[in-house]
Amino acid sequence: MSSSEQPTSAGQLAELRADVRHLQSDITEIKGDVRTGAQRLDALRDEVGGRFERTDNKIDALRNDLSLRIDAGTTRIDDVRNDLGVRIEDVRNDLGLRIDAAITRIDDVRNDLSLRIDAGTARIDDVRNDLGLRIDAGTTRIDAVRNDLGLRIDAGTTRIDAVRNDLGLRIDAVRSDLTAKIDEVSKSISSAKVWAVLLYVAMGATLLLVMARGFKWI
Prior knowledge:
With 218 residues, the chain is mainly α. It is built from one helix and no strands. It starts with a helix and ends with a helix.
């Protein structure tokens, strides 16, 4: 090794030593920081553990309180169920009695209606029979009246025919008599017309004679 390289090596060794001291100092600080961090972690763990323990205690207390409330609610529900069961049974019994009474009343009404219907049916049969007898008697009477009216109508028709024939004969006789009288009257009227003409001529001649004398024509 040369003399120029020895001072360089000594300087480098001194620098290495200084670096080592700095590293040792840094390691010491890191150890202190690690120890402080470990202490803080322990304190934090203890604090968290205490909080978890208090939380567990609270949860246990809440669970116990809820259990007591649930038990009380269950007991109350059982009481209510039993009370409702008793009430339902009472209502069922009361409804059963009412239904039985209603069925009995319906049976009574049905029997009464059956009796009334039977009585009404018997009365209708009696009325039907009575009406049948009356209708038969009325039919017989109508047949008798119809036969009597037929005989009377036949007799009336015969009489009407006789009266019509007699009236025809009388009308023919009256027509012949009136024809003869009308002929005589016509002849009389013709004679009267001639006499009237002659009378009118005589009256005109007389009037002319009087006018001629009045005017001194003659």
